[in-house]
Amino acid sequence: MRGDTVRVDVLGVGFDNLTLSEAAERGMELLHAGGTHYVVTPNPEIVEVCRENPAARAAVNGAALVLPDGIGVIKGAAMLGTPLKERVPGVEFAAGLLEKMAGEGMSLYLLGAKPGVAETAAERLRERYPGLRIAGFHDGYFQEDGPIVENIRQSGADTVFVCLGAPKQELWMAKNGLATGARLLCGLGGSIDVFAGTVKRAPKFWCDHGLEWFYRLCSNPRRLGRMMKLPVFLVHVRRAGRRK
Which residues span the domain enclosing 167? Predict the structure, then answer.
């Protein structure tokens, strides 16, 4: 299910052109649609991975909802003459979805992060979203998919937040989503750490001005290698724009 919108192509990745509130509404539509669906939230780094990895590109484009998490994606789409409405950060999409899920008494399974973090996140989410049911949780340190898939299936979770890092989480959802029995799976990177409070988001000013990436770099200089994907991404966008 992809709604009635035409996806915006950015270097081979098709993004759904939605606002944050529209994305949360679409997520709920998927939850009520029947079957199993998954959501991905690519940033420029993931788009670059998709350029080089056909399996990752297929997994990302195979999602029912592809949301632009990263100001670089927004700038890239504008440079290509196909602007997107706005950036849709994965953690904010998740928060909007959880609020709606809590209102309907739906259940959530958390998969990812270091041991103990998902449990802390679950406790905090219970407090923040009364009505939300926590079906279960598991850290991201596992060797075989089978036991995890079965655990999720047995939990009866409506939604699974899959936070294993890209492109592992996208490939995992594409491969295992249907077998989990969940109606919606969302690839959300480090969101479990944010919900647990072990990682803090940038202050509002930085987020509002598209500088969250810079704040994260200042907070953790070891991210520099990953951040270098952004200028590479913009160079590739410029080249693609010239070929149009």
Answer: 8-196
Task: Judge whether 210 lies within some domain.
Answer: no
End-to-end CA distance of the chain: 29
Instruction: For residue 136, list its beta bridge partners.
Output: 109
Q: At 84, is the secondary structure helix, strand, or coil? A: coil
Kindly state whether residue 32 falls inside one of the protein's structural domains: yes
Q: Where are the alpha helices (DSSP H) in the chain?
A: 20-32, 44-52, 54-61, 71-79, 90-103, 117-128, 145-155, 168-180, 191-196, 204-208, 212-219, 224-227, 229-243
Tens digit of pLDDT per residue, the chain (244 long)?
444 568 999 999 999 999 999 999 999 999 999 999 999 999 999 999 999 999 999 999 999 999 999 899 999 999 999 999 999 999 999 999 999 999 999 999 999 999 999 999 999 999 999 999 999 999 999 999 999 999 999 999 999 999 999 999 999 999 999 999 999 999 999 999 999 999 865 566 656 656 565 555 556 555 545 556 678 888 899 999 887 6
What total of structural domains would you count in the chain?
Answer: 1
* pTM of the full structure: 0.89
Look at residue 53 and tell me if it is in a domain. yes
Domain contains 228: no
Give 65's contacts (C-beta < 8 A, 6+ positions apart): 2, 16, 23, 26, 27, 30, 37, 38, 39, 40
Helix (H) or strand (E) holding 115, with range, is none
- 71-81 b/e (C-beta count within 10 Å ≥ 16 → b): bbbbbbbeebe
